[in-house]
Specification:
Elements: H1 5-16, E1 47-49, E2 56-58, H2 77-80, H3 92-98, H4 113-128, H5 142-158, E3 162-163, H6 193-207, E4 214-219, E5 223-228, E6 237-241, E7 244-247, E8 260-263, E9 272-275, E10 279-280, E11 298-301
Length: 302
Amino acid sequence: MVSGKATSAVVLRRRTQAPRPRSVRSRRDYSDAYCQECGSGENAAEMLLCDKCDLGFHLFCLRPILAAVPNGSWFCRSCSGHGKVQYFPLVQTKIIDFFRIHRSSERIQKPSQDSRKRRRASSLVVSKRRRKLLPFNPSEDPTRRLEQMASLATALTATGAEFSNELTYMTGMAPRSANRAALEQGGMQVLSKEDTETLHLCKNMMERGEWPPLMVVFDPREGFTVEADRFIKDLTIITEYVGDVDYLKNRENDDGDSMMTLISSANPSKSLVICPDKRSNIARFINGINNHTPKTSALVCR
């Protein structure tokens, strides 16, 4: 934290204009800086300075693009280590604790033939009804499931977030009592009994370590993204979008890149958003989500 108006102005100027090499100290030489991505020295006001290596980057040349100069320290991809995420460092025992799995993944047995028949029959019935949600089918190989979970654990750890599979209500943000479906402008869709049972089935599977077949990967241009590890049918529940619940009015100037609407109230001061930057699950890394649905919680379906 930097206190004092004069000091803040100096820091802002330093962080928005990249310098020439460290040997050049004169403040007027900052205008000769250039972006490490595009090589241009134009748009100096949009140049961001790494707080470790002092190299400059245009906000619009970064991937993901930054809309504004972030608060606090900022480090480029090389200095932050994000560009080096090529493996999953968490071993099995830590994975179990990280996701609070109720039993060891080694003990998760392959479903019996009868249960597989029942699941296929159930899926067949559901698929014949229009717009019914389907449960995900976890990978059968326990080792592969651990790799999928490890990829998510790695991404959450690298971005400084804790794992959570529920909406969280923190002091100073919106209280739990503010999350009421009755506040939704125009009413809110309610899950059917069958879809509710499917959602609970998915939650129970995840608590046992049977996770959706998804892999979190790192792309040098897009950052952390999610890939399907196997074919997933349409209308399959993948996860719920979770994070800290807050009033939209508190987040109007927030630079978070994955907030999602939870409630759009007729009274804007009561509208809520989900902020997954501190506590989240795999939905944090799935791009393009911007919807709010059943029972004031957001389902992520394929």
